[in-house]
Amino acid sequence: MARHLCRAALALASCTAGSGCVSLRRPLPPGLSCQGQPAPAPAARLLLDVTYLDADGQRHSEQEIFDEAMALIRGARRLILADFFLYNEFQGNSRERHRALCGELTRALLEQKQRHPGLDIVVITDPINTAYGGTAAPHLDQLRAAGIPVVITNLDRLPDSVPLYSLPWRLLVKPFGQSRASGGWLPNPFGEGRIGLRAWLRLLNFKANHRKVLIADRDGRMLGLVASANPHDASSAHSNCALVFDGAAVLDLYNSERAVLAFSSTAPPPEWPPEIAAPAADAAAAAPTAQVLTEGKIREAVLEDLGQAGPGDRADLVMFYLSDRAVIAALKAAHRRGAQVRVLLDPNKDAFGRTKNGIPNRQVARELNAAGIPVRWMDTHGEQAHTKLLLLRAADGRRSLHLGSANFTRRNLADLNLETNVRVRGPADAAVFAEADAFVETAWNNTPGRHISVPYPAYADESRWRVILYRLMEATGLSTF
User: Containing domain of residue 211, as a range?
Assistant: First the structure.
């Protein structure tokens, strides 16, 4: 009998281990890692949230992104599809309160649904907003009670980004299910209250639906918004960027969100309003064009554009996290070919009341500075420089602008996290590029009364040990970036 039980246990362990190994190599579900067709987007506008110091050292935060998001919601009559990573009131250790974005977005959705009962609204979000099942989310319950479907992304369908942790987690923790939303005994790392052990262990598996997307109709057409910003109270003073656009690219954006719904919910996805004709892409129409990119296709497009930069061209990167080795190599290669490359980074020191150690940006900045690439730091004061933007200015007047949810890290660019970016291309005189040019130059040069950045020495870190640590963290996924 003991022999049979032992064999049965070994067989079960082998099957479970095999299942875990398959999960580590799991391909993305259908419809992800997509590359839309470039399509005319005549209404494309750059939106910016910028936090800076005035001449007296007082902090100011000018915000456009969620003002526009609320306007899109108020204008909708047929469809609203929202997908946001951080959508909660969690404050962490930070007591700073700038803008209650979570409640603001919730009220806007509830009020619009009440005014227009036939309006189809769907909200997609990440399990982080319930501390991975460890706590209740009253604002999400409010939406559900009003008849607004809330879909928590099924992260188990995504590849694992931390193989050293994910395999034992799948074997020893996942079979026991999720924590209850009450009764935990461990501190909630995101806010007040307690959560269970299984919620903590699920958190450490480090995967996410990191997208920031809003789609809504207005006056008989569909508009899309792709951002780096979250409706998260503790993030409300962060610097961020977004693009609002129209045209056929919005249909690609909509289809990329339907792909998430397909593997996260059994309910039928919202239909494109039948009275709103799906816009046709016309390659011959006037620029600029917008192209939706998700997951690994973001990296491919970034490397393509950096690979074409040469003498007389300029490439400006403004980034919250920069650690992806392929992107770093492409920046250095463009510099060697004669392109003027500049990099403006968050110093990775502020995280909701906690002080970070500067990894990975300070180690990457050390490498870029040694290669002769000018580097500056966004001068943060409790908030984060959460912008994710790459602007390429070709000598012949063409422009290419990349922005969205994706940090330039392995986890964000290697078909692991869910991400959405937009690439905008066109002539230099298009308004969206004039806005991007002005932002980059103001942030780099600190125009009078707007102190935004500081020189490289302000946060330079020459520690070789932390370089090794960064490289290990990036390669293994044992990090939050």
Answer: 39-264
